[in-house]
Amino acid sequence: MINNDKYSELVKYLKGLGKVVLAFSGGVDSTFLLRVAKEALGENVKAVTILSPYIPKWEIAEARELVRELGVQHEIIEAPIIDSIKFNPEDRCYLCKTAVFTMILNVAEEQGYNCVIDGTNFDDISDYRPGLKALKELEVKSPLLECKLTKAEIRAFSKELWLNTWDKPPYACLLTRIPYGNELKVEDFEKIENAEKYMMSIGFRAVRVRCHGDLARVEVSRNDRNKLFNEKLLDTIAEKIKECGFKYVTLDLQGYRVGSFNETILKKEDNQNK
């Protein structure tokens, strides 16, 4: 156990929940939370992972392996693209979270668990995250948020606990790669997943391939943009991404930033408030 007041507070908080189901993605936050929940609750914690067309297959495989290593019960639930988000509305995250967490809550209730928890952290409340409203309405508990743990603290604690996710780049579901208002198609998710997998395989850890129909808009970490100043590499990247199903490939000069499609929403809200 780590000798730290916030960490101790988190363990105490989790012990007070009794028997929990954790919505597990395999990311930095949920992996750390699962590790601490295992420490606090022993066999009284179960991980549940969502399998959907907009969740990359490699991420599901990583989640399986992480849960196996931590020795926790694991269940995978299949979730289709629900009708209410078929055309990727601006409140997509709220609608999706409501549907998905209702499924997880049903699992918890049917199997005798006290509550459902998730990996929302203290930094998340400063970002545009409409899904948080759904979690609040469904009374899903967020221990990391409640104990005011930031992303930096979670990474630091994860490193102390020898979790290999401690420096894992942030990764959101593939719904975030599609512009709002566009129809969601399984074939587009497959193109995006394969293109991002290729980019990661050549060393771009933080990468997003935004899908604009036949056009792929590639975002890499701002620190990695200089790596792209190589004509041979650019030609290879274009060729490989076209092989994934895109007709055109372009680079976003600003580089990767969280939720770049949200910029249009935030700008619209700002104009409305003026």
H and E order? HEHEHEHEHHHHEEHEH
**What is the helix content?**
40-55%
How many alpha or pi helices?
Answer: 10
Please tell me how large the radius of gyration is. Answer: 19 Å
Sheet of most strands: 4 strands, parallel
Shape: globular
List the defining traits of the structure above:
globular, disordered C terminus, alpha/beta, 274 residues, four-stranded parallel beta sheet, 7 strands, 44% helix, three-stranded mixed beta sheet
Please tell me about this protein's structure.
The chain is α/β, with parallel strands linked by helices and 274 residues long. Helix content is 44%, strand content 13%. The chain has ten helices and seven strands. The strands form two sheets. Strands 3-2-1-4 form a four-stranded parallel β-sheet, sandwiched between helices. A three-stranded mixed β-sheet has the order 5-6-7, covered by helices on one side. A hairpin with a 2-residue loop joins strand 5 (207-212) and strand 6. Helix 1 packs across helix 2 (28-41) and helix 4 packs parallel to helix 5. The model is unreliable at 269-274 (pLDDT under 50).
